[in-house]
Design the sequence.
């Protein structure tokens, strides 16, 4: 089997559902061998691992709670041991807005959770994985940010700031390792049709169907995106086709952030 | 025919040489019919001979800063390919333009060559792109469309301006199935850029400095420009619009 990621070893956090799962599928189709990161949905991840085929060998599942520092370190070790090294690291693990509130009503606990999973986990995993990535084949890091890291979405301060931090972490990594052959880029999706989004829409006025319509109307293109559209971009950025692209924040947002 | 752009019909301004030709080649290799335009007929004729190895390829010469030329080239492209769904604009002009002593005419010339081709290409291509139901416009800006550079006032203004044009046009087209994006390359070794370097006192030193100014310490390659253009023209990029994407080895990140 060939493909633009043939022979690559990739670790995708948050790989059991939503954007992460779409990335795992496209990477596998493009020939990569994937370590599917999961926490609560490890069974789904195992089912994916056995369903998907790749030229690179069997996919593996790495179960870890990325809020926990020790488990995060163990996850990195398991990835490197399981794949025998690493060429691509994608941090897609995330939680969406669980409570919308202005800044002064945002709990410290929510703030900490948002920062830990989106930003601190990405830093901790990068620290552990970069030495291995530097020995990998044309290595690359991709962070899944958000349009909320670019614009100040109302009543969502913790998520916005965590994603903005993640995006800048990616740019810093791009700068630190540009001469060493490791690229780092960030995708900033608009609203994507995922279980998290449907759950969010169900809490909007009029329920899920009306909520999805409202979300679609926020994008100049007039719809929300499929997770596959994010995964295709991730595959492009991770491949040799993007060999001169580093430090880029690529919004895939149907024009949302330019208005 | 297979390929990521199978069935697409692409008109490439500045398609006879350099980045424009590299993008035309990459699009043709992915299955698109291509139609190139530029000022020099002989250059276009030679380039099309190479493009024909991949599939349908045609050309018409014209000045992309002249409305009547762009109208004529657009009509010729539509007739040759049986429609039009992809436009790439790789036209422009450079030159040293410090703010202190640049002749007004030189500033105006560079601005015109930066902005008019993109505007005219969309202005006269619009109805065909919308008729196709699904279209993509790609304008070659520059990393100097994102950051400033000394002694390049006109070029930076023009390339920044292109990005404003791209964002506004993307909104005009957003609900009509047509996407508009800009690519912002770093230094790429093309026949034109190498010719400019040759006029320097120490060409090899200047060339090396241009390569090493990127965080990834080398020049961008033409094939890398083609790959990004193919992605932006392809259906998997259907939610990407209004963006200015740096392909500059991290230059604008630092």
Sequence:
């Amino acid at each position: 089997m060939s493909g633009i990621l043939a022979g690559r070893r990739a670790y995708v956090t948050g790989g059991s559902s939503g954007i992460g799962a779409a990335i795992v599928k496209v990477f596998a189709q493009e020939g990569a061998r994937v370590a599917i990161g999961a926490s609560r949905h490890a069974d789904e991840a195992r089912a994916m691992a056995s369903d998907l085929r790749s030229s690179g060998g069997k996919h593996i599942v790495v179960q870890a709670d990325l809020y926990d520092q020790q488990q995060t370190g163990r996850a990195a070790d398991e990835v490197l041991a399981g794949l025998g090294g690493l060429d691509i690291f994608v941090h897609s693990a995330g939680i969406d807005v669980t409570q919308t509130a202005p800044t002064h009503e945002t709990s410290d606990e929510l703030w900490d959770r948002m920062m830990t999973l989106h930003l601190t986990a990405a830093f901790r995993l990068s620290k552990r994985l970069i030495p291995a990535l530097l020995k990998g084949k044309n290595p690359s890091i991709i962070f899944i940010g958000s349009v909320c890291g670019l614009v100040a979405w109302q009543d969502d301060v913790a998520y916005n700031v965590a994603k903005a931090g993640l995006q800048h972490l990616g740019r810093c990594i791009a700068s630190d390792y540009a001469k060493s052959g490791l690229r780092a880029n960030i995708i900033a999706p608009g609203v994507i049709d995922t279980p998290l989004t449907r759950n969010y829409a169900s809490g909007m006025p009029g329920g899920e169907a009306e909520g999805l319509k409202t979300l679609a109307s926020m994008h100049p293109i007039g719809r929300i995106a499929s997770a596959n559209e994010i995964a295709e971009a991730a595959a492009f950025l991770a491949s040799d086709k993007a060999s001169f692209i580093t430090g880029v924040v690529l919004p895939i947002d149907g024009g949302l952030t330019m208005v | 025919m297979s390929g990521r752009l199978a069935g697409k019909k692409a008109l490439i301004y500045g398609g006879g040489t350099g980045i424009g030709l590299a993008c035309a080649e990459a699009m043709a290799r992915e299955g698109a019919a291509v139609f190139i335009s530029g000022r020099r007929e002989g250059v276009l004729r030679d380039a099309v001979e190479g493009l024909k190895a991949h599939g349908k390829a045609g050309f018409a010469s014209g000045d992309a800063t002249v409305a009547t030329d762009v109208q004529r080239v657009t009509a010729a492209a539509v007739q040759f390919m049986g429609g039009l769904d992809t436009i790439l604009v790789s036209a422009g002009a450079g030159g040293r333009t410090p703010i202190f002593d640049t002749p007004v005419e030189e500033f105006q010339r560079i601005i015109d060559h930066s902005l008019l081709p993109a505007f005219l290409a969309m202005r006269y291509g619009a109805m065909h792109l919308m008729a196709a139901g699904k279209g993509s416009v790609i304008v070659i800006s520059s990393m100097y469309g994102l950051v400033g550079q000394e002694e390049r006032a006109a070029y930076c203004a023009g390339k920044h301006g292109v990005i404003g044009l791209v964002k506004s046009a993307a909104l005009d087209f957003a609900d009509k199935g047509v996407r508009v994006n800009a690519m912002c390359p770093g230094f790429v070794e093309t026949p034109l850029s190498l010719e400019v370097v040759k006029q320097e006192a120490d060409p090899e030193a200047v060339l090396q400095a241009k390569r090493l100014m990127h965080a990834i310490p080398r020049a961008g390659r033409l094939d890398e420009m083609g790959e990004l253009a193919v992605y932006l023209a392809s259906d998997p990029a259907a939610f990407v619009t209004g963006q200015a994407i740096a392909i500059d080895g991290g230059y604008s990140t630092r």
Summary: The longest strand of chain B covers residues 178-185. The first helix of chain B runs from residue 18 to 29. DSSP finds eight helices and seven strands in chain B. Chain B touches chain A through 34 residues (CB under 8 Å).
